[in-house]
Specification:
Number of strands: 9
Shape: globular
Strand order of the largest sheet: 6-7-8-5-9
Helix content: 25-40%
Distance between the termini: 18 Å
């Protein structure tokens, strides 16, 4: 068995698409996955399974839809990939302040078109630094523009079935 991380998109945000992690954990166990554990309420589930990533994502997505009655896009990655990225520290060299947020956005597949990178918003409040292995690395500086439309920028470029996690979350997962 291999160890995976399932990233559930768009749940438990602002009271919408409520998915209790206790129930999500039970669903994963009922699917026959082993050593299931959740990290935070934002939909990060570590588990062990034998299937392929594509098959796991399909099985989990279908079961969550059946259980909760709404669509929850799921991206599955080997946990070893997350650990490798954390050890590589793609944000090394970026000065981090209390207003800086470091993000990794997971893509369901390689994009057909890759934007010219690095990309910076005109006010430099949001930067997309790199794209590697279906992951987009970005930095948000809240001191420059409160809450810029970072997710809209990412969705416009990479589609709506992406999901983003704060770097600190990935460190916990690793």
């Amino acid at each position: 068995m291999a160890e995976f991380v399932a990233f559930l998109r768009g749940i438990n945000v602002g009271g919408h698409k409520s998915v209790p992690m206790v129930k999500a954990k039970q669903i994963f166990e009922d699917l026959g996955f082993a050593n299931v554990r959740t990290i935070l309420a934002s939909g990060n589930i570590i588990f062990e399974a034998k299937d392929t990533i594509v098959k796991l994502a399909r099985i989990i997505t279908n079961q969550l839809q059946d259980s909760f009655g709404f669509s929850i896009p799921v991206i599955v990655r080997p946990r070893a990939d997350i650990t490798r990225i954390v050890k590589a520290d793609p944000f090394a060299g970026n000065s981090v302040t209390k207003d800086m947020r470091l993000y990794i956005t997971f893509l369901p597949e390689e994009p057909l078109q890759v934007p010219r990178l690095p990309y910076h918003t005109p006010d430099n409040s949001f930067s997309v630094l790199a794209l590697s292995d279906c992951m987009v690395f970005s930095v948000l500086d809240l001191s420059k523009n409160g809450t810029p439309e970072a997710m809209k920028i990412l969705e416009k470029q990479f589609g709506k079935n992406i999901t983003t996690r704060n770097w600190n979350t990935l460190v916990k997962i690793a």
